[in-house]
Specification:
Layout (H helix, E strand, L loop, with lengths): L9 E5 L8 E5 H5 L5 H10 L4
Antiparallel strand pairs: 1-2
Length: 51
């Protein structure tokens, strides 16, 4: 997602219910540094930077 006011790109992550279901907003580069889970892999695929 992109903040219309600042232009910053971020991820709006919704955890699955078994993980508590929390919704968090995190800057895209920071989100990608959290690991190589399915969420990060999918974002990299969408960005065209899959490893």
């Amino acid at each position: 997602m992109r903040d219309d006011r600042t232009g910053d790109e971020y991820v709006l992550h919704s955890a699955n219910p078994s993980s508590g279901g929390a919704v968090t907003r995190i800057e895209a580069p920071a989100f990608l540094t959290l690991g190589n889970g399915p969420e990060q892999q999918e974002l990299r695929r969408l960005l065209g930077t899959a490893n």
